[in-house]
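Q: Two folds, back to back.
A: First:
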Amino acid sequence: MLQLRRARVPLAVLAPGFEDGPVDPIEPSVVCDITVENGGILRVEPSDTGVAVAGDRDGQRDLAGAIVVPGFVDAHVHLDKTHTWFRAPNRSGTFAEALEVLWQDKENWSEDDLLRRASFALGCAWAHGTRVMRTHVDSGFPGAATSHGVMARLREQWRGRIELQTVPLCRIDEYATPRGEAIADLAIEHGAAALGGMPLMSGELPRQLDRLLALARERGVGLDFHVDESGNAEAACLRAVADAVLRNGFEYPVVCGHCCSLAVQGEEQQRATIDLVKAAGIAVISLPLCNLYLQDRRGNGFPRTPHWRGLTLIQDLLDAGVPVACASDNVRDAFHAHGDYSMLEVYTQSVRLAHLDGRLGDSLRVVTVAAADIVGRREYGRITPGLPAQLLVFAARSHSELLSRMQTPTHFVDGETICVPELPDFRELMDLA
C-alpha cells in the first residue's frame, strides 16, 4: 500500500461533488490524501492535517501540496509522419506544401524508419506523462500495410505504459470505391479503434458519408474525421457529418478534429452547426499548436502576421455541452515544425489561446477526462477510487505555477511504483537523415 499525503488535485479530475461549497475560480483544486493498493486507487479524501509525514516512511509520501494529475490522454496525433522535418521541411508553411513534401517522403517510410521515429515519439510522450494516445495512420497509399503493421507492433511493445489506438486516414471519397472496403479491413485487421478520413466539400459528400457510416457500422466501430482544416468560411463538412449521423441513426461514437472553418463563419451558421453537432452526439478535438502554426499563412513564405488563431470555437462548443479535447496533432513534420508530445504544453497553450482561464476549474478536462471519454477509455484521465493509479506529480503547487513554467513531471506513480521520467535524446534520430 502507498499513501500520497497532501497532494493538490485539480477538481476537474476528481469525482463530481468531491468538494462541498463554492469552488475557488483562481485555484480550483483540493489537497487530498490518495491511497493506492494493488495498482489501483483505493481512496481519495481531503487531507485533514497540514503536518508533514516524518521521513516519508512506512509507505507514505508527503507531497506538501504538489500538483498531482492523472496520466494525460493525447487523442489525435500522427506517429507515421512525426520527426520527418529534417528531411521533408515545409519552407512556405502552407498546407499545400505540407501535403506535397510528406507524400514524397513516404518513399522513406520503411518498417525500420517508422519504428525508429514513432518509438522515439512514444518515448517523449511517456516521459511527458501521456498514458493513452490515438494516432491517425495514412492509408490511401501502397505502403499503408507497413504503417499499420508497425503501429500494431508498437501497441504491443508499449502496452502497460501507453495505450496506443490507431485510426486510418484517407480522403473519404476513397471509401466510396472498391478500395474503400480494403482500407477499412486493413485498419480493423491491425486493431484500429475507429475508421476515419478527411471529407471534402462536394455534391457527392452526403453519399460518401453514408457509405463510410455503413462500413463502420458493419465493423462495429466509430468514426474519427479530419474536418474543415482551413480558414475557408464556405467549408461546412462538420455540418455534413452531423447531418449524416442523424440521417443514418449512427449509433457509434463520432469525433471531428480541427473544425477550424467554424470560427470564420457567420454567427447564425455557427450556432446552427453547433446545435447539429450537439444533437448528433459528436465530440470535437482541437489541435491548437498545429493549427496556430499552419492556419492563416498570408502570402508566399512568412511575410505577414496571421489575423486569426486557427482554433475552432472551443468555448462555444463547451457552452453547448459538446465534448471537447485538445491534442498534439503533428509533431516536427511538414504540418507543424515543432512540438515534443508534451500534453502540459498543449494544455497550457490551449488555456492561453482559447481563454480557458475563464473556466479554469474545468479546463484540465480537455487533456484528461474529456479526452479519455472521447477515445473510449473512461478508466483514464481521472483520480477516482477503483481506477488504475497512473499519476503525475509536478513541482507546481497551484494552477498558476503549473501554467507558468514549462516542465515535465517530477515523478510518476504507476501502481505502487514511483519513478522519475527521463526524456529521450534527440541525437537518437540523427542517423535517419
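A: Second:
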Amino acid sequence: MSALTRGRAGPVAGGEAFTDLQRREIAGAVRDAELLSGQHLSVYVGPAEADGRQHSERLHAQLPDPANSVLVHVDPRARSIEIVTGVKARYALDNRKAALALLTMQSAFATGDLARGLVAGLHQLGTLARREQSLHTDTP
C-alpha cells in the first residue's frame, strides 16, 4: 500500500481498480487543486488499520512535506474518509473547510462513484484552501 501522491492513482479496496481515464481525472484534479491552493495534495484509496484516523495521520507524516500537505484517505470497505492537513496547510484549510469537501465526496460516494467523488472533493479542497490575496499594499 502506498500513498497516491501528486496525482498517482493506486489500489482500491476489494480488488477494484480505477480505469486509466479515472486515474488521469484524479491526477488532473490533484494538479488543479495544488495550483489553486499552493498546498501539496495526496490521495490514498485503500484499507485503513483499526483506527482509520491514526492510520491516515501516519500516511500523512510519510509525505515529503507534511507541514504543507493535505492527505485525503478513502477506505471504501469501511466507508470512511479522512482529510489530514499539515501544520502550515491548516492555516488555509481549516476543519470547517475540510468538512465541506468531505460532504461533497460523501454525496458522490453514496451513488457509488468513487472517482467522481474524489475529483469533486479535490476541486473543492483546492478552491477552499486558496490563499487569500490582500487588497491592501504598503505602496501608495
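Q: And?
A: The chain has one domain: 4-128.
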